Amino acid sequence: MNKKSMTHFKLDLDDLPQLSEEERSRLVAMTDEQIDFSDISETDETFWSVDEVIQANKKPVYLCLDEDIVDWLKAHGKTYQSQINAILRHYVKAQQIER
């Protein structure tokens, strides 16, 4: 996907759109088969191979991140620093492919 075809938007986590009770009930009752995934690209082996383990020399850095980002990463496992590295590595690879 090139940069020209991407749509960017910002979601204010402090001001999320509210669901009506009807919308909430409909979503809760929805089965996996009823979810429309048509706008999501299919994945293949190439996509999943990006998550390879790379043993690289690590360089300690001091990094200030938004508190909500750190909280989210920590909530998804004790290896949040490794997750940050993997996210950054994935981003770098994507940038290299686009060039």
Descriptive account of the structure:
With 99 residues, this protein is mainly α. The protein has a domain of 58 residues. The longest helix has 19 residues. The radius of gyration is 18 Å and the shape is extended. The termini are close together. The relative contact order is 0.08.
Estimated helix fraction: 40-55%
Count of alpha/pi helices: 4
Major sheet attributes = none
> What is the total tally of β strands?
0
Spatial gap, N to C terminus: 11 Å
Which descriptor suits the 3D outline?
A: extended
Order of helices and strands: HHHH
Computed CA radius of gyration, to the nearest angstrom: 18 Å
Unreliable stretches (pLDDT < 50, length at least 5) are: none
Q: What is shown here, in short?
A:
The chain is mainly α and 99 residues long.
Describe the structure using short key phrases.
99 residues, mainly alpha, 4 helices, 0% strand
SSE topology:
Blueprint: H1 21-29, H2 45-48, H3 67-75, H4 80-98
Helix pairs in contact: 3-4
